[in-house]
Design a protein that fits this description.
By secondary structure, the protein is of the alpha+beta class. It is built from 49 helices and 24 strands. Helix 19 packs across helix 41 and helix 34 runs antiparallel to helix 35.
Length: 1326
């Protein structure tokens, strides 16, 4: 069925149909510019047409029901139409409405329906054209003369379907008066109709016979419309190939002409009903829009759809709408009546509304005047401009270093505008307040509102902003783009422009156009500031996003956008202590006298000059004495008190230099520092202070962790109703309560140490995200391009983009400050390796002719970078992978089967690193708890009884000593299962110690732990991480690496704090979050558009928080206490940590599998309740069963389901037990035992794996250095050779221009003559 006009008006141009309808309408009115001259003329034409054509159409309809006199109802006449059973529903209705069908008269006895004189004088051909017709078909001629018709409009024409029928009316033509397009459309389509009619007789008749037959056909098809006679043709749609595409996909503006123009546009293939379907023709939609198309009206179809005239006080707007409606219904008399009647009713309602509004205004003039005074244009415009400036300033401020988790407009600014609303617009505020006020939300008139605003107050402010936008769309244009951008960032489609939720907002294209304008205006300011930042920290990582295709092409159902995400973190400089020596770019040296923090990234420093040069100016002296902001470009710290000498580089078991402020009181023990109320920390150069070594620091952390474990185990010992505590456990719990103060001090040791060595710890950091680079950094060529993008974005060098006359496109030039800046990058291991190869790859580029113009700048800028792999990829992925490689087969997999944990396959690098880490935490808690249970049984009650003259601290330390001896004894035990579990606890201790060090911003502990794992990496075939670890040692502690001040500053900035009181994150983890922020946004149709929009990610994030409110992350990992208890029972059955110390057992592959308990149920009762449904009473009575038994019966009837109730542990061997257990863990295969299972990778076995690694590393370093030098030597030789040739060429060119080019063979000729004369003499003498 054809689409109605009302649905088209409401939907808007969202589909291809709507676009085509509007485009055809535009072309139609452009073709007939004189059709609507004046509004009054159109109305007069409508009423005049009403008097003539309406009654004529009624007369034609009534007369059409009679049967012609020359045709009898029983007459069987050949016809050229379709069968009645195949007619559409509307056609069947038409046929059934006539009791006596009107047959098609024979062509030789043709009589026209026209009663005019021209029709009566028609001469019938003596030799009629004979045609073959089917006798089993009957056709009823559907015509405007015998059936009420409905005119098809533009939107109906483009929505035609296959087998739809319509009447094509071709009006009379006048080549001189009609527009060219209209005349051409009528003439072309009339020729097409003639071609169809003459198709069967084109080869059997003469031209004169065909002309006479066509004249008779035109007379038969002649009808009167618009007061003139035209011709109608009843046609059916055979093909419309473009319809399916236009139904779902919008049409681009660029395709408009290609689809509409008569030469190339879309067309409809039609068949003339009554003639051969082989003879068809293509009618262009452009031509059909210029002609008149009709379709029969159904009996219950309304005369005309509802017309909504604009509710405006301007008469010309209403009359213009009426003129357009009348023009579209021209030729349909009943539609004319409907439009005019609806116009009359609309005018009547509009006048009544005007009168009622006048009465209301008079009755309530006081309230109206108050609201009018509040809503004056001047006040609203001034308020809107101030709000819009605030939003514009906030968006401009996003182009710089910003906090990540913050709103675009702070709550304080929103509160300011709300109070201003109350003051300047009191009556409007009261009106809005009365709407949203409830018994839970009330305001007092006198008190100002404090930040943050209540949700109801935010609604009032939003409604007021919306009222301003409703008054004028030119106001608050930057506020209007916030909500669409927030939807875009959250990955949600923006509500429709006509919906109430988005009526005040801008279109998404307008939003990005405004953002692009802001970015273009302000990015240079940020670049200029970035160019003068001495130290920055950043990261980059690979970006991949897969986008599904609508249609599969090239055997691909998706495309992948691959690039690189890059960001920089603002530097938070360390405080400069008194006595620090600083040198300026002009050689002036001074000592720091005072240092205070000006802002998060700047220090206000005053100094005392002790050395000057000839270039020292008076302004520089005044700047140093009066105070200068640091850090500054070229102002370097030469010496700072507190640093200890650097240790020797050994790589394996490398000694980590302590931080500058790591000093404790001389002579204190580790226990006094860990458990002391005063931590005994000291400042550098204090008389009683001594440097705290890394080894002591690590032992203090281990001590504090063991003491905290006592308190954690005591908290676990909570008596329950099912099981009471044993006397020994009660005694232990009571003893722990007496030393709870000391345990709390041990728990806070790490926090206090971090804040002592880093006073800026916990400060929220700032970052700036750069646009996505369209290159992948996982290859050498891709890394070169990513490095070029980074250097240009970081303002280290410029790349010429314009095509200059000298041909310098792509030429690189260093910025003035590039050699004095330092950028420290923290990435994954692969990126670090690729970045380290840049120097060699760039040096090789020098051998290419013409590459020096950009390679030299890239090589010089490379010295400003340091790059090393960071903690997230190393700790949480590859370090965890070491544990899984060593313990998954036969140990952790058995634990997995016992707990039935899914989504674990022993490879955390490639799959579900968070799930693997959560399971390791469950195993860690279960092993430590079981070991503590066994320790209590072994130690007895006497160990936890306080001795005489023993303090709480001494008692706690005595417990720790006893427990440490107990654990160390199992390291050398002959019981292999227990030794494996003890070694697993040591590995997990080190793993979670490193993970917590990152969260607590403890860089020192992290550096020590990183070195301890080098041997484990090498033993587990992770050679790249062992090598990258040694390269990191060279960067941090090497002779050619960072200085003491650079290392100290890097340590204080190597982690990122997003929110106050939040955990720290490594920079490579922040880069992973940046990747997720990019992927969260709505995807653009092209990768280039994604790249262009990625530069606004910081603004988009703030708009998302502003729209949807930033909610704190309260999600916590489930305790999984049930799984912990399952594993403890497994350890008890396996007798891990036996009471007999001399027990000697050999660990075989099935040790833990023999103790794994086979699951007895496929799910919990709660899960089964979710899968079942309550039966009705009738069903229960019919089958006499309950719901639960029905569900159980269905489960047992499934032959593929394992019935666990029939499984007996005693009847199964080990292989069957393993296979059955793994069925409940997902698609997991049994893993074999690792050869590293019994080795201590953090001990002697790891040391053995690192044997010879230092020498190999030095050889590799020397080999790379030699390759670089060889390339440089070859390049210098080649350049010298070219230079000498160029000099010789210049000399020859100069001589040739002066015509003084010497003959090179004159000396040779004279020598030749002398030789030949001497030879002749010898011959003659002989």
């Amino acid at each position: 069925m054809l689409a109605s006009r009302g649905s088209y008006v409401k939907a808007g141009p969202t589909s291809g149909f709507d676009f085509m309808a509007l485009a055809l309408k535009d072309h139609f009115h452009a073709t007939f510019p004189s059709t609507i001259k004046t509004i009054s003329g159109v109305i007069n034409t409508a009423f005049k047409h009403l008097k003539t054509s309406f009654f004529a159409s009624l007369k034609g309809v009534s007369s059409a029901t009679s049967v012609p006199s020359n045709v009898t109802p029983s007459q069987s006449t050949p016809s050229q139409s379709i069968q009645q059973r195949s007619l559409p529903s509307r056609s069947r209705t038409i046929v059934q409405s006539f009791p006596t069908p009107v047959p098609f008269p024979p062509m030789d006895n043709y009589v026209t329906h026209d009663t005019s004189a021209a029709a009566a004088d028609t001469v019938v051909d003596e030799n009629p054209i004979t045609q073959h017709h089917r006798l089993d078909q009957q056709y009823v001629a559907v015509s405007c003369a015998n059936q009420a018709m409905r005119k098809l409009r533009f939107q109906d024409i483009v929505r035609l379907k296959h087998n739809d029928e319509f009447i094509l009316f071709i009006p009379p033509m006048n080549k001189k008066k009609d527009p060219k397009a209209f005349y051409k459309a009528c003439d072309d389509n009339l020729k097409k109709m003639r071609k169809i009619v003459m198709y069967d007789v084109r080869n059997t008749t003469t031209k004169a016979q065909r002309d006479r037959y066509w004249e008779a056909e035109l007379q038969r098809r002649r009808v009167q419309r618009y007061g003139r006679f035209g011709h109608e043709f009843h046609v059916r749609v055979l093909a419309y190939p473009e319809r399916a595409r236009m139904e779902y996909d919008p049409i681009a503006e660029s395709e408009k002409n290609n689809l509409i123009l008569p030469e190339t546009g879309v067309g409809v293939t039609v068949q003339l009903i009554g003639y051969s379907p082989v003879a068809n023709s293509l009618l262009k939609l452009f031509d059909l829009a210029l002609l008149d198309l009709y379709t029969p009206k159904a009996p219950d179809e309304p005369i005309y759809d509802e017309v909504r005239f604009p509710n405006s006080q301007r008469d010309d707007m209403v009359l213009s709408s009426l003129a357009k409606e009348l023009m579209e219904t021209k030729g349909d008399a009943t539609a004319y009546i409907s439009v005019l009647m609806q116009y009359y009713n609309s005018e009547k309602k509009r006048k009544q509304s005007d009168q009622s509004t006048t009465k209301i205004v008079k009755a309530d003039a006081t309230l109206t005047s108050q609201l009018t005074s509040d809503a004056s244009a001047e006040k609203l415009t001034a308020f809107a401009d101030e709000v819009d400036r605030a939003y514009l300033t906030a968006m401009s401020g996003s182009l710089g270093f910003n906090h990540v988790c913050e709103y675009l407009i702070s709550p304080e600014v929103n509160t300011y505008f709300y109070n201003k609303l109350r003051e300047q617009f009191p009556y409007i505020h009261k009106a809005l307040y009365s709407v949203v006020a409830t018994k839970y939300f009330k305001e007092t008139d006198g008190d100002p509102v404090v930040s943050p605003l209540h949700d109801k107050q935010k609604q009032i402010l939003y409604l007021f902003y919306g009222l301003i936008r409703a008054r004028s769309l030119m106001l608050m244009r930057h506020w209007a783009i916030v909500e669409p951008l927030g939807y875009f960032y959250k990955g949600n489609q923006q509500p429709g422009s006509k919906s109430m939720g988005a009526m005040f907002s801008s279109d998404i294209r307008t939003c990005f156009e405004k953002l692009d304008a802001i970015y273009k205006a302000d990015i240079e300011v940020f670049n200029n500031r970035l160019e003068f930042e001495p130290v920055l920290y950043g990261a980059f990582d690979n970006y991949q996003r897969m986008i599904q295709k609508k249609n599969q092409t090239g055997h691909k159902s998706a495309i992948t956008h691959i690039g690189t995400a890059i960001f920089l973190k603002a530097d938070v400089p360390i405080d400069l202590p008194k006595g620090t020596t600083v040198i300026t770019p002009f050689g002036t040296r001074f000592n720091v006298i005072t240092c205070s923090r000006h802002e998060s990234g700047k220090l206000f420093v005053t100094g005392e000059i002790f050395e000057t040069t000839n270039m020292t100016s008076e302004s520089e002296k005044a700047l140093i004495n009066g105070g200068a902001l640091m850090p500054r470009i070229g102002w370097d710290v030469q010496w700072m008190p507190g640093f200890v000498p650097r240790p020797e580089i050994t790589y394996h078991k490398q000694v980590v230099p302590p931080p500058r402020r790591a000093y404790v009181k001389d002579g204190v023990t580790d226990a006094e520092v860990v458990l002391g109320q005063d931590r005994m920390f000291r400042e550098p150069l204090q008389s009683d202070g001594v440097s705290l070594t890394s080894e002591r620091m690590h032992s203090m952390h281990c001590l504090s962790q063991r003491l905290v474990d006592f308190g954690t185990y005591a908290n676990y010992l909570q008596p329950s109703e099912e099981q009471d505590l044993s006397p020994l456990q009660k005694r232990f719990k009571a003893s722990v309560d007496t030393v709870q103060k000391e345990i709390d001090l041990a728990r806070k040791f790490q926090r206090d140490l971090v804040h002592h060595i880093n006073p800026n710890a916990g400060q929220v950091d700032k970052m700036f995200a750069f646009p996505l680079s369209p290159h992948c950094e996982t290859s050498h060529e891709g890394m070169l391009m990513v490095y070029a993008d980074m250097g240009k974005s970081f303002r280290l060098f410029d790349i010429e983009e314009s095509n200059t006359a000298g041909g310098n496109v792509g030429r690189c030039s260093l910025t003035p400050t590039s050699r004095k800046r330092k950028i420290n990058l923290c990435v994954d291991a692969l990126s670090s390796k690729m970045f380290r190869s840049l120097y060699l790859n760039l040096t090789k580029k020098l051998t290419e002719i013409g590459s020096a113009q950009y390679v030299e700048a890239l090589l010089n800028a490379l010295s400003s970078f340091t790059c090393q792999h960071d903690c997230f990829h190393e700790n949480r992925m590859h370090r965890q992978d070491v544990i899984w490689r060593q313990f998954y087969g036969c140990v952790l997999q058995a634990f997995q089967a016992e707990t039935r944990t899914l989504r674990i396959n022993g490879d955390p690098v490639k799959n579900n690193v968070q799930t693997h880490e959560a399971f390791l935490e469950v195993c860690y808690r279960a092993l430590k708890r079981h070991r503590m249970n066994c320790f209590l049984e072994k130690a007895g009650e006497e160990c936890f009884t306080r001795l005489e003259a023993e303090s709480e601290r001494d008692m706690l330390l005595r417990w720790d000593q006893t427990f440490s001896e107990y654990c160390s004894n199992w390291d050398e035990s002959s019981d292999e299962p227990t030794r494996i579990c003890n070694n697993l606890i040591k590995m997990l201790d080190a793993y979670f110690r490193s993970a917590n060090a990152v969260k607590k911003q403890d860089f020192w502990l992290g550096e020590v732990e990183n070195i301890l794992w080098h041997g484990a990496y090498k033993a587990c075939s992770k050679k790249n991480y062992a090598e990258e670890g040694m390269h990191r040692i060279d960067t941090l502690y090497g002779v050619n690496g960072m200085t003491d001040v650079e290392l100290e500053n890097f340590r204080m900035n190597r982690f990122f704090i997003m929110t106050e009181l939040g955990d720290a994150m490594s920079l490579d983890e922040v880069n992973e979050l940046l990747n997720s922020w990019f992927k969260k946004c709505l995807v653009a149709p092209t990768f280039q558009l994604n790249l262009d929009r990625s530069k606004h990610i910081m603004t988009l994030m703030k708009c998302g928080y502003q729209t949807f409110e930033r909610k704190p992350n309260r999600s916590k990992r489930s305790g999984q206490e049930e799984n912990v208890e399952k594993l403890i029972r497994l350890f008890e059955r396996a007798d891990v940590y036996p009471s007999n110390d001399t027990l000697s057992r050999v660990f075989d592959d099935n040790f833990f599998w023999t103790h794994v308990k086979i699951p007895k149920a496929t799910g919990t009762k709660k899960d089964q309740d979710k899968e079942s449904a309550e039966l009705s009473s009738g069903m229960k009575g019919m089958f006499n069963v309950s719901t639960a038994s029905t569900v159980a019966c269905q489960e047992r009837d499934d032959p593929m389901e394992v019935d666990d109730s029939d499984v007996e542990d005693e009847e199964m061997d080990t292989d069957q037990r393993v296979e059955t257990s793994l069925k409940f863990c997902g698609n997991v295969q049994r893993k074999n035992r690792s050869p590293l299972l019994l080795k201590e990778l953090l001990g002697v076995d790891g040391d053995d794996a690192m044997h010879g690694m230092k020498e190999k590393h030095l050889k590799t370093f020397a080999r790379t250095h030699n390759r670089i030098q060889a390339v440089k030597i070859v390049n210098r030789h080649f350049e010298g050779k070219i230079e000498r040739r160029m000099q010789a060429l210049e000399v020859i060119t100069a001589q040739a221009s002066e015509k003084t080019f010497p003959s090179r063979n004159r000396q040779w000729k004279s020598q030749y003559k002398e030789v030949m004369v001497e030879r002749r003499r010898n011959i003659n003498s002989a």
